Amino acid sequence: MTERPSRVAAAGQGSQPGSPAGPASPVRLSRVDRLLPVWIGLAMVAGLLLGRLVPGLDRALDAVKVGQTSLPIAIGLLLMMYPVLAKVRYDEIGVVTADRRMIVASLVLNWVVGPLVMFALAWWLLGDHPAYRTGVILVGLARCIAMVLLWNDLACGDREMAAVLVALNAVFQVLAYAVLGYFYLQVLPGWLGLEQAALEVSMWGIASIVLVFLGIPLVAGWLTRWWGERSRGRAWYEGTFLPRIGPVALYGLLFTVVVLFALQGHTITSEPLAVARISLPLLGYFAVMWVLGYAVGRLFGLTYARTTTMAFTAASNDFELAIAVAIGVFGVVSGQALAGVVGPLIEVPVLVGLVYVALWLRERVQWPA
């Protein structure tokens, strides 16, 4: 059995994510991929220790902003997303958009089922903690436009489908986040006789975050592929150039994790019971949505690559948007902001674990060609 090249460190090598996969094509993780949970765990610990032991570090990092967007986090996410978006074959996106049933199913999972699941779990498990409950609901409304590209790539998902779904989620994010926030925090609780919460967030505030975390790397990735293929050809671009920039995604991920946990290290370590309570609905949410994504993919007879993309886009969230909204509306030391911060604390290790579950299913389930 030959070792499969790392999806992060050797982009463009190995099997293509859009190709069918089944038991006949064994996959063995490279050393970098096998140790990814270790690197992320070390980055989380390093961030927590830095935030706890270095006086004023959290305030210094939080002060470096463009609008409501943390510049260090923005830099980390841009470094993480650029290599992934540079891998996308943009000339093949039309094949993805032609399958409207798949696109509609993904949008329903993301914008109807996902928020409802998080709403139900938040009220069930945090009914006695209004601030934490509201923060968790805000996380559920923020559909992923960033890290899902990396999880999808590591799990050998369909890059072109992921790019389309992320772009659609970005548009819906701008148009629907404030409306859905009003519905799930005021209208639906009112119908059910539950406590209501107010949410005031501008469409431009959401749009600016989406433009930074998706627009910049998307344009950079498209321009890079256009220039590379035009000047040197696809074989050179995918065989030589992509492997050279691939490790940048891993460095960006680890840097982002360190900064996130350094920003909130003191809060997280000083309130472990609160973190544990907030973790419960988040754990339930990630598991339920990922399983539902796989179930829908199997029901529709999708390939492994497309089913995997369906599952990861359904289970992931845009933690940066949720944190920015929670801080902007309720304050940096609020329970809502703490719930937003706990989001990536749980999502990062859980989604990394699900990458390995997906790769295990890839070898043990018969998938359509």
Task: Tell me what the structure shows.
- By secondary structure, this protein is mainly α.
- The protein has a single domain, classed as Na+/H+ antiporter like fold.
- It has helices spanning 31-34, 36-53, 57-63, 71-87, 93-97, 100-126, 130-141, 148-154, 159-192, 203-232, 234-245, 247-263, 265-270, 272-299, 304-315, 319-330, 335-364; strands at 65-66, 69-70.
- The protein contains 17 helices and two strands.
- Strand 1 (65-66) and strand 2 form a beta hairpin.
- It has a two-stranded antiparallel sheet.
- The protein is globular.
Summarize this structure as a short list of keywords or feature phrases:
single chain, two-stranded antiparallel sheet, 2 strands, Na+/H+ antiporter like fold, mainly alpha
Q: Can you lay out the helices and strands and say which pair or pack?
A:
Layout: H1 31-34, H2 36-53, H3 57-63, E1 65-66, E2 69-70, H4 71-87, H5 93-97, H6 100-126, H7 130-141, H8 148-154, H9 159-192, H10 203-232, H11 234-245, H12 247-263, H13 265-270, H14 272-299, H15 304-315, H16 319-330, H17 335-364
Roughly what fraction of the amino acids lie in strands?
A: under 5%
Which structural class best describes the helix and strand composition?
mainly alpha
**Sheet with the most strands?**
2 strands, antiparallel
CATH architecture, by name, is Up-down Bundle
Shape: globular
Strand order of the largest sheet: 1-2
CATH topology label: Na+/H+ antiporter like fold
Q: How many whole angstroms does the radius of gyration measure?
A: 20 Å
How many extended strands?
Answer: 2
Measured distance between first and last alpha carbons: 22 Å
CATH top-level class: Mainly Alpha
What's the helical proportion of residues? over 70%
Low-confidence stretches: 1-28
